[in-house]
Amino acid sequence: MWRRDSCRARSGACILKRRIHLFEFNDWAHTPEVLRQAETDALRGLESLAGVPKALAILLNRLIAQLVPDRIVDLASGGTGPLLPALGDYDVEVVCTDWFPSSRAARLVARHRPSARYLSEPVDASAVPESLTGLRTLINALHHFSDDDARAVLADASHAGQPIVVVELLNRRWRDLAMTCLIPLGVLAVMPFVRPSFWALVATYLVPVVPLMVGFDGMVSCLRSRSQSEMLALTTGLDGLTWTTGAQRAALVHLTFLVGVPTR
Length: 264
What we know:
- This protein has one domain (25-262): 3-Layer(aba) Sandwich (Rossmann fold), CATH 3.40.50.
- 41% of the residues lie in helices and 15% in strands.
- The chain has helices at residues 33-49, 52-67, 83-87, 103-112, 147-160, 174-180, 183-190, 198-206, 209-224, 228-233, and strands spanning 71-75, 93-96, 117-118, 135-139, 164-168, 241-249, 254-262.
- Strands 3-2-1-4-5-7-6 form a seven-stranded mixed beta sheet.
- Strand 4, helix 5 and strand 5 (164-168) form a beta-alpha-beta unit.
- The longest helix is centred in the N-terminal third of the chain and has 17 residues, at 33-49.
């Protein structure tokens, strides 16, 4: 069902042999909350523009049909991202979590999927509470973790025997890196459609902090991304789940995914 692949994909080869874990504003604890929320809003708009929800829906539909989960636990939800639109009307409980929970993200979840829950307390993706059983999703977030921390996230799912799907949107390829140069223009285009706050609009159009910040973080995300083989290497020795990798094409990007399902 899931195919394994190498670092090379149809859109080109990796431009760097190893990932570079540089600074991102969205990871920085001192980033003002209004800018953090504006960035997650902009990313949600850019992901929709790139066709990510539709591509993610194809991937999730296959996985859900295989596992038939009672609950989906979204880790590092940020501004909710493409998960909720990708799920459509599928009848499953959804719990969104984040290390930096925000009331704005909670309102977005309630608006897009009233039956979903957004936890107000921080949740560590590498130490998920035992009560949160179900299919874990980590969408466009693994690159935020160092190798040790990323392995800890996967190890927690493996030790708990809970299935997990990790999806990354960018890769270390020339096309993806070149595309990040257009992100500031994309932010200017999508921001009016993501219901931003007044101050987010000021920081986008009057003083263009948000477009530059999102563009910078996007370029760093490219350099931080992992190939399929690098993702799979993180799972060495984690025998509680069976791990496979693959790719799913969206309109403007190629999703790279890692899936862990309980070993039968």
